[in-house]
Design brief:
By secondary structure, this protein is an alpha/beta fold. The protein has two domains: 3-57, Winged helix-like DNA-binding domain superfamily/Winged helix DNA-binding domain (Arc Repressor Mutant, subunit A), CATH 1.10.10.10; 68-251, 3-Layer(aba) Sandwich (Rossmann fold), CATH 3.40.50. The chain has helices at 3-17, 22-29, 33-45, 67-72, 75-88, 101-109, 123-129, 154-160, 186-197, 236-244, and strands spanning 19-21, 50-52, 55-57, 94-97, 117-120, 136-139, 143-144, 151-152, 165-170, 174-175, 180-183, 199-205, 217-221, 227-230, 248-251. It has a seven-stranded parallel β-sheet with strand order 6-5-4-9-12-14-15, with helices on both faces. Strands 1-3-2 form a three-stranded antiparallel β-sheet. A three-stranded antiparallel β-sheet has the order 10-11-13. β7 (143-144) and β8 form a beta hairpin. The longest helix has 15 residues, at 3-17.
Length: 252
């Protein structure tokens, strides 16, 4: 059994039982405890499970990974995704950028552009892009979420709804097998829904770990986006939706 097969087996067992101890996984996979610990650390780093003392379990659908931890997860992959998304945005474009560590990386890649007009509900994105004199950066009104600088709430939705933008760049916490876009905070979801409704061309930036990752609030459906940028080919169920809805897939 190679590493990929072993990771799939570990995830399958954890999805079935909710939690698996290291000893149980050692028996199931017929490898050493050191190998299982390394596998669990890699899977936890990619965000597909949570590491606990003595084993691992499913991510909790009501609570996201802490912001500082998310900033370092899959950093190289997110960098590639950010490069690919930035390359799709022409100079002079207008765009929404929502909350997320991937969208913050995308903002840094946009600094080489000219005359962008940006509306964002992400304090970090606004700070990054305000360094450019030729950029117009508008930050949404609303409540600032302390843990990650996201701006959320009814006032934010109303503010976003005033605009019609060329591009919407969105991140997401999870994508279910049936294509539902999932997140953890219903207030953030409502803002993202407003972005989806007021954008001519929606770009979803998501690394592969987001597929089948659980979160309790449904933001929308992948059929609502125009382009998916990911580091790997999506699962077959998602590929079917992409083909059925003529969504552009870009592999970063």
């Amino acid at each position: 059994m190679n590493q990929t097969q072993r990771h799939e087996k570990i995830l399958g067992l954890i999805k079935l039982h909710g939690f698996m101890s290291i000893d149980d996984l050692v028996s199931a996979c017929d490898v050493t405890p050191q190998t299982i610990r390394r596998d669990l650390n890699q899977l936890a780093d990619s965000g597909v499970l949570s590491r606990y003392h003595g084993g691992a379990g499913l991510n909790r659908s009501w609570e996201n990974t802490p912001y500082q931890e998310r900033k370092t997860q899959n950093a190289e992959v997110k960098e590639k995704i950010a490069d690919a998304v930035a390359a799709m945005i022409p100079d002079g474009a207008s765009l929404f950028i929502n909350i997320g560590t991937t969208t913050e990386l995308i903002a840094t890649k946009l600094l080489n552009h000219k005359n962008l007009h940006v509306v964002t509900n992400n304090i970090h994105v606004a700070t990054i892009l305000s360094a450019k004199e030729d950029f117009s950066v508008i930050i949404a009104a609303g409540e600032v979420r302390y843990r990650d600088g996201g701006i959320i709430g009814e006032a934010t939705c109303d503010f976003i709804s005033q605009f019609r933008m060329d591009y919407g760049i969105i991140g997401i916490s999870g994508i279910s097998a049936d294509g539902a876009l999932l997140d953890f905070d219903f207030r953030e979801v409502k803002v993202s829904q407003a972005i989806l409704e007021h954008t001519q061309h929606v770009i979803l930036a998501a690394d592969y770990s987001k597929f089948e990752r659980r979160a309790m609030v449904e933001q929308g459906h992948i059929s609502q986006v125009d382009c998916l940028v990911c580091d790997q080919t999506p699962p077959k169920s998602i590929q079917h939706i992409i083909n059925e809805n003529n969504i552009t897939f870009v592999k970063a």
